[in-house]
Amino acid sequence: MSVNILKSMTGACQALQEMENAPPAPAEELRTLWGRYAERHEFKPGDLVAWKPGLKNCKWPAEGVPCIVMEVMPARRRAGNEGTDRELAPTDVRIGLKCCGDFDGYWVDGNRLEPYRAQDPAPEEAMSISDAEATVFAESAVV
Fold first, then answer.
1. pLDDT of 92-106, one tens digit each?
2. 50 with 61: CB under 8 angstroms?
3. Closest Cα to residue 91, out of 118, 119, 72?
4. Cβ contact 53:36 at 8 Å
5. pLDDT, tens digit (0-9, with 9 covering 90-100), for 53-89
6. How far is 64 from 55, CA to CA, in rounded Å?
7. Radius of gyration over alpha carbons of the chain, in Å?
8. Where exactly are the structural domains of the chain?
9. Measured distance CA(127)–CA(139) in Å, rounded
10. Residue 138: Cβ within 10 Å count
11. Spatial distance between the Cα atoms of 36 and 70, rounded to a whole number of angstroms
12. From CA 95, how far away is CA 109, in angstroms rounded?
C-alpha cells in the first residue's frame, strides 16, 4: 500500500471515530444543509466563488475566502482518488487559489460553491498557507 493511501486511511479512521462520538445533527439542520447543497449555480471561468455556509469539505480555501473558477465540466464526473472517501465524490468545477505563492487549481463539487459576495477584505494571513499545509492539501485534493 502506498504511503498516501495509508495516510488517507488513518485520517478516515480518526474522522470516523470523531463522528461516532459526535451528537447527531438535528433534522432541521440537515434539511437546511441539503437545501443549500441542492441549490445549483451556473459558473463560468473567471467567476469568483466561495464555499456555501456549512458545505466546505476541503481545508482550503477558508470559508468566506474567494477563489476563482478556472474550468467547468459540462457533466459531473467522479473523482479518482483510490482508497479515499473522495473516490466517488462528484466534481465539476475547477477552482484556482494561491497557496504558498503558487497559483494552483483543484476540482471540487460545484454544488458546494456559491458566487463570492465581497465583505470586508480578507486578511492576507487567511489567504496564505504554509508549504507543509499546501503539500497535505495537494495530496488530498481532487485532481
1. 899 999 877 889 898
2. yes
3. 72
4. yes
5. 999 888 888 888 899 999 998 766 665 555 555 556 7
6. 12
7. 16
8. 3-140
9. 19
10. 14
11. 23
12. 10
